[in-house]
Amino acid sequence: MATTVPENPLMQGLERLPVHPTTLVIFGATGDLTHRKLLPAIYNLAHEGALPERFNLIGVARRDKEDSDFAGESRESIEKFSRRETKPEVLDAFMKNVRYVPGVFDDPEVYRELSEALDAFDAEAGTPLNRVFYLSTAPEFFPEIVGQLGQAGLNKAEGAETRCVIEKPFGYDLDSARRLNTEVLGVFRERQVFRIDHYLGKETVQNVMAFRFANAMFEPVWNRNFIDCVQITASEDLGIGTRAGYYDGAGALRDLVQNHMLQLLTLICMEPPTSFTADRVRDEKAKVIEAISPPTVDDVPHMAVRAQYGSGASGGEQVRGYLEEDDVPPESTTETYAALRLHVSNWRWAGVPFYLRTGKRLARKVTEIAVQLKPVPHLAFQQAGSVGVQPNQLVLTVQPDEGVSLSLGAKIPGASMRIRPVNMEFHYGTTFLSQSPEAYERLILDAMRGDATLFTRNDEVDGLWQVIDPILESWKNTPGPLPQYPAGSAGPEEANALLAAGHHWRSL
Amino acid sequence: MTTELMHEDRWSEQNTTPSAIEAALRDMLRVRHAANEAYVPARVLNLVVVVDREWRGEIANRLEDVGRYNASRTVLCTVEAGRSTLDAHASMAYPDDPSPGQPAVLTEGVEIAIGPQHLAALDAIVDPVIVSELMTVVWAPHGHADAIDALDRLAHVVLLDSSEDFEIGEALARVSTLAERAYVVDLSWLRSVPWRERVCASFDPPAERPSLAKISAVTVRHHPESGAAALMFLGWLASRLGWDPSRLVGRGDGMSGKLHARRQDVAVTLQSEPRQSVPGLAGVTIETADGGSIALDRGPGGLTAHRRLRDGRDSEWTVLGASRGEGGILGEGVRQALLRDPTYRPAVEAAKAMLP
């Protein structure tokens, strides 16, 4: 018989909701992501008093080392990468409950030792603590770790919650994503699984939902009757740096479009959820993904463009092209630029093209969503002597300058009725006092709390790969070389072919 | 971590007027924006502070310590005996080198020297100087209740520290009165946030939640001048858990008494802790009728928690968290002006009912 847990009346009015006592286990504890992002994020939560009242950390990685070595290295990373100045007394207290389990991920002995370390923390607390396993390893280890956790019986704990956070990429294509989902859901239940896409933890991405669902004025025009097209851009001015090993195997489509950019599209297109809970929000996002018509392989050349950056001038410096970068094979056909035209086939969005583009070594770093409204049906004003009346554009900038901008037509001062576009701008930085927390702070806390709203559900992952897979398939079967665009430019000319008549890519 | 280098444009005038101050601010903004379009004014809230001239430096230092939680326009009114005219200076702080394509945020400060006779009509001086469409927070750390009253029509939020009143009853009565007119942000209440969060968290796991109905004793240890904070903490527990607050008995170093919960009485004790050097709470112990207890006390790196389980076993650990310091508390006060806490007034009312 299920017992009812009484409400906690002390929770009302508190900004930070309680998180139950937890031991967090990081697989890949010596990796770059752990030291640059995860450990600083956990420290910042500790500094703010946001961690659970009891919190322990166990690192698992291949290199052999003692608890104290791992604690010392973690401390150094936190001091180097924390967004706030560290306090020695907080770090000292934090490091007291840090342990390290060395070993390779396919060795059952590692999981036996891990189990002992977890039990020791439980015994010290006198109560079973919640367990969160954070998989921050290379993706090929995910199935092995999940399987071993299951075999060791660590996928559940009597009297406590067990959760599993899985870093991106979740799969390499539709088949591998489905295999991974099958492996993961063979060990954990969906409610225990938190597939991370750190983009969703960004304040400004969450603000897309606030913008849409907390302001009644936009809803009447938020549909095919008023919106002409939507452009989603995620451009970077940098090249691949030292990431050739990863990037040449992934490419722009997998790196940014399959996850971040399609997630932005779902937030723009989703219907208002009935409540802001994990499943209601994800139900609405899943419906959008389902409504994106996956292309056939034959459609791909007409709706997708790929290219590579060539040499050129970026930030005032002459830079190499992608094929000349260190560790990139000279015959590589990995795209550093991808642009797509997608359609969301539902009542609200039918006929509205969604243009997505991302690339490296472009003119500027910007992530934005530009919603272009249809032009006015009849123009009574004089156009001569001005740039003329332009369709209104609503631009939500995610980074680097978070804000919202609305372009309007305004009269140029003077005797005649000439119009030019002006911008009404809102910058988050001028209006809020708070420094936005790092996305990982929010997401780690949510995972410990069991709130999956900002994580990707299995049906979402599957649907996103269904959209991307035919493009990957087509590109795999199309021989190179790829079109080139000069470094520091706005991208390849070929991308213009995706645009419907009268549409233009926004200036970067 | 990077620290932005800030510069300042300044303007000052003796025997000036509010209109001249406002014009100077507008002019500084125009000049700065003309120099570089990236400069845009912060538009968060106005903070109006009324202080005695001789304590101006102390308050200015406290405002500097709030870090990133600066009001976008701070108006400091310094009250000087014998002054009959207004002197003012205004400043506009801007970052040294704006990044291309990104806005560089300007913050504005105004200091107006006024005489005591100006207080009764302070709104007429302040009104032209604040940004009208923004929320206005008023803070008078040296009393000046007349100034707060005069600014009534402008103030959306009153910032205060109920621990600064020597007499707890007067402090709580004043809070109640002000709360009828504006939203009150009380620094004493904010100092107890980590304590309230931790007590809430201690009882939140499903196995612990039934214990909330079994609380039989609460002891709150506090800085000698933070009796109001301790009483409000107790008021918070009482109002949230449905205890019937009743008059406590005062004794030399605190208060004690019994409150009536649904199942049993709750023995409550407030203890002054003279060894504590900073304002606020020093510790909290909560006992339950079945023999369990949780004690939280200030310690290195956070709060030291001591739990006695129902079977008699003990455990002790550190609940991690950095002290925010008084600068951090004031910054939090400014930030809280943008939020609303529905539990504060019920806690104050319960605290008033417990006054000896």
Structure, explained:
The complex is a heterodimer of chains A (508) and B (356). Chain A is of the alpha/beta class and 508 residues long. In chain A, 33% of the residues lie in helices and 20% in strands. Chain A is built from 13 helices and 17 strands. Chain A has a nine-stranded mixed sheet. In chain A, strands 3-2-1-4-5-6 form a six-stranded parallel sheet, with helices on both faces. In chain A, helix 5 links the parallel strand 4 and strand 5 (162-166). In chain A, helix 8 crosses helix 13 (458-476). The radius of gyration of chain A is 25 Å and the shape is globular. By secondary structure, chain B is α/β, with parallel strands linked by helices. Chain B folds into two domains: 6-155, no CATH class; 193-324 and 343-353, Dihydrodipicolinate Reductase, domain 2, CATH 3.30.360. In chain B, 29% of the residues lie in helices and 32% in strands. In chain B, the strands form two sheets. In chain B, strands 1, 2, 3, 4, 5, 6, 7, 8 and 9 form a nine-stranded mixed sheet that branches. The termini of chain B are far apart. Classes of the chains: A alpha/beta (508), B alpha/beta (356).
Q: Identify the overall geometry of chain B.
A: elongated
Helical content class of chain A: 25-40%
| Oligomeric composition of the shown chains | heterodimer
Uncertain runs of chain A with pLDDT below 50, 5 residues or more? none
Largest sheet properties of chain A: 9 strands, mixed
Main β-sheet of chain B: number of strands, strand sense, barrel status? 9 strands, mixed
> Which structural class matches the secondary elements of chain A?
alpha/beta
The percent of residues in helical segments of chain B reads 25-40%
Order of secondary-structure elements of chain B? EHEEHEEEHEHEHEHHEHEEEEEEEHH
Radius of gyration of chain B: 23 Å
* Strands of chain A, total number: 17
Uncertain runs of chain B are none
Q: What's the overall geometry of chain A?
A: globular
Structural class of chain B: alpha/beta
Biggest interface found: A-B, 55 and 60 residues
What portion of the residues of chain A fall into strands of 2 or more residues? 15-25%
C-alpha end-to-end distance of chain B: 50 Å
Instruction: Name the strands of the widest sheet of chain A in spatial order.
Output: 16-15-14-13-7-12-11-8-17
